[in-house]
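Quick check before the chapter quiz. The format below is the same one you will see on the exam, so make sure you can read both the input and the output lines.
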Amino acid sequence: MESDGSAGLAKSAALKLSEMGERTKQLGSAMQDPDRQRKLILVIVCVALLLDNMLYMVIVPIIPDYLADLETEQAARTHANSSVSRANRDNLDIQIGVLFASKAILQLMVNPLSGTFIDRVGYDIPLLIGLLVMFVSTCIFAFAENYGTLFAARSLQGLGSAFADTSGIAMIADRYTEEAERSRALGVALAFISFGSLVAPPFGGVLYEFAGKRVPFIVLASVCLVDGVLLLTVIRPFSNGTRANMPVGTPIHRLMTDPYIAVVAGALTVCNIPLAFLEPTISNWMESTMNASKWEMGLIWLPAFFPHVLGVYVTVRLAAKYPEMQWFYGALGMVIIGASSCTVPACRTPGQLMLPLCGVCFGIALVDTALLPTLAFLVDVRHVSVYGSVFAIADISYSLAYALGPVVAGQIVHNLGFVQLNLGMGLVNVLYAPALLLLRCVCQMKKSCSERNVLLEEEPKGLYDSIRMQERRLRRKGLCTTTDNVCPVDENGLFETPRSLSEEESSGPEFI
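Here is the expected output.
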């Protein structure tokens, strides 16, 4: 009887193991499905962007109070006199501004290198590096006990962002090759960016108030770790054999000299200036003109999330129906930003102030959602379809605005006034909007430059479909039979066409 019982237990255990094995196989096959895989990649990238922007803004309610406590403890420990304590309080604002700007400054410096690195090795490894660096910087934030350590953690976050943000957006552009799908996917990513920026201050403030400084950063570090593990599960970046055949992307300095890309980059910088300059200055202005409380200063940003998502949704829907009008959506967004920025100084209550801030965020959504897919399309039709450097340029545009904000905005308010700051930002946006008229001819290239859909008999499945397109053409001619054969490339990263081909086959460039 005992042997029968043990045999039954062994049989049931074997059946359970078999069922688990089948489920694992099904999960593995589901992971390899191209459509499901790119949806999972979109989720991973969106979580990475959410984390980066939460880390950027979560310190807003934490750091000023925490640094003030550190200054008080240091003064008490050293028995400083009143004049030294007053000097320390005067330096506190400068320290906070430098701390806030350090992330964007380092990100601005690293982006040219990270864009080139992404073009060389692909999108997956840099995304993993970015998540790892962000995890380390968040842990340092959690356990930092002095200003120097906080500064190092903030700067390290800029390094991680330079890799994670650029490679994540570039990976979305590479996986979603159809213009409508690409706009929709990038719109979802922008919504996560907005949500992270706007939900982080109340998230950090509540946890800091009731659980201490470390808890918000430990929570974010845990989510970052989970996202990195999920990336390793889905992508498996260190086992990709197609990396040997990767085309060489156009150098970032050549992309910067492309007039169309330069116009888009300028628009991304100008449209983000109002938000970057208002964040460090609007609290003091509200306190002096409205006698606003701390919770009111934080609450005014929260409603802006909804018009931002609305702007993303509207732009995606319009771009699907009228893709040739992308330049107009961006120009309209800049005009809305300019008008909203000019009305900020006229507000007299926090409730009134929410309206122009919502207008600013709505306009930024129009500009970003219209112009980020345009950057990817410009690379497709004018350069090589490798997106690391071009989205590094976009990240440089954002970083430039947010690096100048904490440093320059306070000086402008001190020398000229808050009203003049807002009028200047609004005027710059309105004056720059007509420059987007130069992008009208870009939209007309869409029909004639879509060689990919003709040469690929199946829907592109992701990473570097330009490699698969070229290999398929050469395989049909008997010139490239395996993916292990590296086809020659010229100095621009384009595949060289053999001399023996007919003039008709080799006359046109492989990519426009």
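If your answer matched, good. Residues 446-464, 480-512 have pLDDT under 50 and may be disordered.
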